[in-house]
């Protein structure tokens, strides 16, 4: 064992030196995240900043960023995709944690968050062995399945539109959001089809060179916006096309990093350096991307930390099917509980805040994170053998979902479990004629 250690260290060193561009890109991303949060603090009262503590915050961020070396060494997988988004999420929390006005054990919270990410990344990055396919669709059966997905999505849109369909601007969606009410079945179908099934169908149709059918899937995705009045739904087609373009130009790992780095940089440039009407659009973009998409999710961990430092933990009773079986101190969803307490609106949060802090507390949160990492690792195994670009496009929405909602919600309500199954049964033969990119 000891004799193999120098060999392992040498291989890691060579991997780091073999891709300096990737390392530099990750370092730049880390810096941009911190600068973005300083800018966010000037526009959002719930994110604090004190220049007297800047040096301390930089030390914390620099120390934590050593974990980013894992993304230089590791090969691409679905866990890599999710893991880097979570790296950004926890980096943001650790920065906010230095300046926060919320009252909790900040040192313990920061340490718990960093350890939670580390133990999550262990299985999420390292477990990639392929599960033996007991069942695999034929190419013709896959096409039939894709047709069924389109029909199911169209049916879901038609039925859901009888409950709500409003063509309103993004600035007015919150005037009507409280009026939304869908039956449970429709609510699940909306989440599963829009987050998992249609992106999978798009990736398959693009692979099979069925461009018009791929375009139809994007149109169907856009039609969920007037139904759900969600910014996420509005930008979903553009996000998938962005991943398509980036993955065409860059290898998979760079695509993952650039998918966050570029939007953050654009937000900073447009809000800091451009004035006039274009600057106004830039500030709107900054609010949507830099604040809502990234900073708000890091801030949610900060808020959950304070709340559950004074209130009982859930021990997972917030999960719907468990709530009916065991006593639960919270009858409303946690997002609603946070709204009633802090008044920020329904505050959904990632697995680090929900399955971790809310469920078991700071000391046991790393154990919960490790278990969640094993679930993502299972997704790695089911997607093994698929081209990285296909995984990136078909799974393009899941990292964003996982930054916003608990893992259990992402698996069921947002269809991640269904996407895992689809990856498993996808016929690998349809990729035989393509050059498979290696991450």
Automatic annotation (TrEMBL):
The chain crosses the membrane at residues 20-41, 53-72, 78-96, 108-126, 146-165, 185-208, 214-246, 258-278, 357-382, 402-425. Coiled coil: none annotated. Keywords: Membrane, Transmembrane, Transmembrane helix. The keyword Ribosomal protein does not apply. This is Oligosaccharide repeat unit polymerase. It comes from Bradyrhizobium canariense.
């Amino acid at each position: 064992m000891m004799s193999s250690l120098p060999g392992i260290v040498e291989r890691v060193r060579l991997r780091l030196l073999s891709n300096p561009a990737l390392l530099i890109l990750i370092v730049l991303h880390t810096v941009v995240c911190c600068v973005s949060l300083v800018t966010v603090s000037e526009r959002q009262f719930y994110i604090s900043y004190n220049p007297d503590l800047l040096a301390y915050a930089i030390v914390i961020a620099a120390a934590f960023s050593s974990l980013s070396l894992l993304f230089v060494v590791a090969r691409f997988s679905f866990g890599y995709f999710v893991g880097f988004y979570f790296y950004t999420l926890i980096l943001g929390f650790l920065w906010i944690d230095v300046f926060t006005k919320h009252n909790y054990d900040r040192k313990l919270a920061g340490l718990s968050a960093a350890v939670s990410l580390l133990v999550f990344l262990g299985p999420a990055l390292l477990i990639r062995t392929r599960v033996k396919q007991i069942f695999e669709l034929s190419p013709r059966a896959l096409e039939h399945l894709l047709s069924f997905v389109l029909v199911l999505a169209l049916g879901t849109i038609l039925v859901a539109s009888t409950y709500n369909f409003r063509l309103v601007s993004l600035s007015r969606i919150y005037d009507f959001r409280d009026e939304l009410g869908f039956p449970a079945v429709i609510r699940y179908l909306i989440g599963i089809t829009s987050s998992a099934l249609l992106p999978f169908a798009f990736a398959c149709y693009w692979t099979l060179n069925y461009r018009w059918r791929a375009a139809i899937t994007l149109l169907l995705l856009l039609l969920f916006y007037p139904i759900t009045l969600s910014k996420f739904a509005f930008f979903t087609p553009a996000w998938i096309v962005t991943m398509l373009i980036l993955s065409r130009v860059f290898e998979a790992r760079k695509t993952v990093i650039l998918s966050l780095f570029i939007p953050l940089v654009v937000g900073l440039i447009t809000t800091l350096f451009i004035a006039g009407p274009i600057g106004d659009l830039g500030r709107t973009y900054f609010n949507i991307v830099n604040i809502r998409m990234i900073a708000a999710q890091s801030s949610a961990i900060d808020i959950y930390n304070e709340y559950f430092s004074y209130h009982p933990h859930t021990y997972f009773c917030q999960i719907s099917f468990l709530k009916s079986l065991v006593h639960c101190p919270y009858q409303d969803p946690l997002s609603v509980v946070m709204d009633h307490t802090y008044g920020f609106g329904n505050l959904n949060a990632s697995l680090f805040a929900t399955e971790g802090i809310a469920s078991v507390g700071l000391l046991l949160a790393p154990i919960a994170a490790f278990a969640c990492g094993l679930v993502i690792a299972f997704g790695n195994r089911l997607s093994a053998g698929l081209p990285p670009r296909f995984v990136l496009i078909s799974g393009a929405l899941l990292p964003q979902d996982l930054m916003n909602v608990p893992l259990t919600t992402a698996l069921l309500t947002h269809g991640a479990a269904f996407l895992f199954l689809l990856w498993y049964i996808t016929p690998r033969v349809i990729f035989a004629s393509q050059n498979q990119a290696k991450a």
